[in-house]
Amino acid sequence: LPSFYNGTDTDTGLYFSAANEISVSTAGTQRVVVDASGQVGIGASSPGVLLELKAADPYIRLTDTAAASGYSQVMGTHQGALVLSADTSNSVGDSHLRFDVDGSEKLKIDSSGRVGINTSTPNSYYANKLVVETGSAAQDGITIVSDSSNQGMLAFADGTSGTSRYSGYINYTHAANAMEFGVNGSQVMEIDSSGNVGIGTQSPGSYSSYANNLVVNESGNAGISISSNDSGSNVSSIQFTGGTTRRHYIECTNGSNGNFTFQTEGTGAFRFIDGSGERARIDGSGRVLVGGAGAY
Fold it and tell me: How far apart are the C-alpha atoms of 142 and 280, rounded to whole Å?
């Protein structure tokens, strides 16, 4: 029973629960204790830290007298969760969780669940569920760290089972140092460790080293289209350069009567070769020579 109590209410008051320790009881039950180390326990008879709360789903409520019936809570649940609840009573319109470091805001979760890191206005952006503001840093961003034999992925999902968990994805395979791109749950493009690009193949480097910087593979018909506005003033072209200098090109002038042009910037020949060797050429003088190199 308490050593100090009010009137006849003998089970409510103060008492010395142990040496160098004082407790508060109500209705005959210890509610608060201050031990010899100055640690305070609320519902905890032997606090292990400066302030310990012990109960089924204990929480701290912060009530704001400036907002009608407004309060927020910090709660520890028996499922092992720590719950930070801003404006639990929903008394104001722009509720949010804010995390400050060194006196300034570093992270914000607004009332729509949008997260801003180094920005207090993630709602200002188009894709705004997670916004990272790098500020004046010359180079900054987000890093996904994986072991050297594992993969790091950014996945776009529309379900929680099967390939719907990664309908679209960007995946980096560290063992091969390759970047993979997937749509509809399957890989469609790869950039390998040499920078070769494969569309429809996971191994562009296995093709001829003369032409494996871009490989397009398909089990059926395959091809590349170059499109521009269908007007005679527009052209579509493939250009072959030495460094940044154009050496040769194939060009199509658009429109129903457009020209199809093969051109070399120098005086070299256009050669036509099959598996047995050269069959014809157009030389730098414009002559058409047929029959192979031995015939002219």
Answer: 57
Please tell me whether the overall predicted TM-score, pTM, comes out greater than 0.85 for this model: no
Check if the beta carbon of residue 2 is closer than 8 Å to that of residue 25: yes
C-alpha–C-alpha distance, residues 114 and 126, integer Å: 12
**Per DSSP, what are the bridge partners of residue 253?**
235
User: Which residue from 188, 185, 186 is spatially nearest to 202, judged by alpha carbons?
Assistant: 188
- Residue 295: per-residue pLDDT: 66
Which residues lie closer than 8 Å to 218 by C-beta, 6 or more apart? 200
Helix (H, G, I), strand (E, B) or coil at 192: coil
Predicted confidence (pLDDT) per residue in 131-180, tens digit: 999 988 889 999 999 999 999 999 999 999 999 999 999 999 999 999 99
Q: Cα separation of 259 and 232, whole Å? A: 9
Q: What are phi and psi of 62, to 5 degrees?
A: -110, 115
Task: Quote the CA–CA distance of 225 and 228 in Å, as a whole number.
Answer: 10
CA 190 to CA 168: how far, in whole Å? 14
- Spatial distance between the Cα atoms of 201 and 198, rounded to a whole number of angstroms: 5
The SS3 assignment for 268 reads coil
- Distance of alpha carbon 153 from alpha carbon 195, whole angstroms: 19
CA–CA distance, 148 with 176 (Å, rounded to integer)? 9
Q: How far is CA 143 from CA 87, 116, 135, 149, 154, in A?
A: 33, 16, 17, 17, 11
Tell me how crowded residue 190 is: count the other CB atoms within 10 A of its CB. Answer: 24
Write the DSSP assignment of 144-179 as a string of letters: ----TTSEEEEEE-SSSSGGGGGSEEEEEETTTTEE
